[in-house]
Amino acid sequence: MKIGYSNVATFFVIVFVLIICSPAEGQGTRVGFYATTCPRAEAIVRSAVQSQLTSNPEIAPGLLRMHFHDCFVQGCDGSVLIDGPNTEKSAVQNIGLNGYNVIDNAKSQVEAACPGIVSCADILALAARDSVVLTSGRTWQVPTGRRDGRISLQSEANTLPGFRTSVADQTKLFTDRGLNTQDLVALVGGHTIGTTSCALFSYRLYNTTTTVSDPSINPAFLPQLQTLCPQGGNGGTRVALDTGSQNRFDSSYFTNLINGRGILESDQVLWTDASTRPFVQRFAGVAGNFNAEFARSMVKMSNIGVKTGTQGEIRRLCSAIN
Question: Which of these, 209, 196, 206, 185, lies nearest to 268 by C-alpha position?
């Protein structure tokens, strides 16, 4: 059949539109990615988180921090979930993470419903959101469509911020990943739920180089912490990061910082540093400010270095590369 000029022109217009409108590799994620291919995915993940959270409140902060640790190393690609002696999971920064069993359980249920469709990276992003919602935080729509990475190196976890990281260094770690100072303060506010061990902050409670304790600690709060973490005692004892509200996602974490009741040094310096103090003050003032900005920053963070299209893979098991 002979093709006329108008038909040829129409053909190229159609091709052009398909190229422009088709999802490109690395283009990013979108809300409702599994709406037709696995419509029950989000409900399955939420149910898996809820069932474990009932018996173990530490699941919520564990999953939230796991997503953070995943995104800051190799991007949000589920690389923190991979087992092995030299993987991210084995790094000292990730030893205390809690909730791997929840991700594995959710993955097995999702695979039964929609085999080979939903990535472990997306399951982790959804579980982090559900952890906030199930501890009385605000919900948000999670863009999905990530694919799982094939690289997981223990050494790369050294880039994660630690319990003594200064505001300047924290800021650089965040800006290197496209996040600003407001994102930093909002995301660290995830410490409103969960606990930490005495080993990570007890050095603040006793003799320092200049004083008997860290002067940024409220003197009235110090005896309480010293009772929980006696000098020479068990460094593994767990202490709430947000005193009085460790299982509820709220803005009291920031109020505690203002009152000198921050547990980790890297938390308390958010109040003592001039660059982060205004955000701490704002988030402590109106709870809605924190909830809204936390959700926004989580979406922003969850798109760090995502793999899409033909990049990565959809793992059959979250703990192992296919």
Answer: 185
Cβ atoms of 58 and 246 within 8 Å: the answer is no
Residues whose CB is less than 8 angstroms from the CB of residue 35 and which lie 6 or more positions away in sequence, other chains included:
none
Q: Compute the C-alpha angle 278/70/239, nearest 5°.
A: 60
Cα 66 from Cα 102, distance rounded (Å): 12
Q: Is 67 among the catalytic positions? A: no
Q: What is the pLDDT of residue 16?
A: 38
CA distances from 214 to 165, 208, 211 (A): 15, 7, 7
The residues pairing with 320 across neighbouring beta strands, listed in sequence order, are 317
Q: Which residues of the chain have pLDDT under 70?
A: 1-28, 208-209, 287
- Which residues touch 77 (CB under 8 Å, ≥6 apart)? 70, 121, 146, 147, 148, 149, 305, 306, 307, 312
Q: Find residue 197's DSSP bridge partners.
A: 238
For 167-221, the DSSP string reads HHHHHHHHHTTT--HHHHHHHHGGGGS-EEEGGGTGGGTS--SSSSS-TTS-TTT
Tokens, residue 315: 């793992």
Q: Which of 106, 126, 124, 104 is nearest to 114 (CA)?
A: 106
pLDDT at 232: 84
Q: Which residue of the set 65, 67, 69, 89 is catalytic?
A: 69
Q: What's the one-letter identity of residue 10?
A: T
Residues for the chain: how many in total?
322
Residue 205 tokens, joined: 């409670």
CA atoms within 13 A on the CB side of 287: 10
Q: How far apart are CA 279 and CA 287, in angstroms?
A: 12
CB-CB neighbours of 214 under 10 Å = 18
Question: CB 4: neighbour CB atoms within 10 A?
Answer: 8
Tens of pLDDT, residues 172-230: 999 999 999 999 999 999 999 999 999 999 999 997 667 778 999 999 999 999 999 99
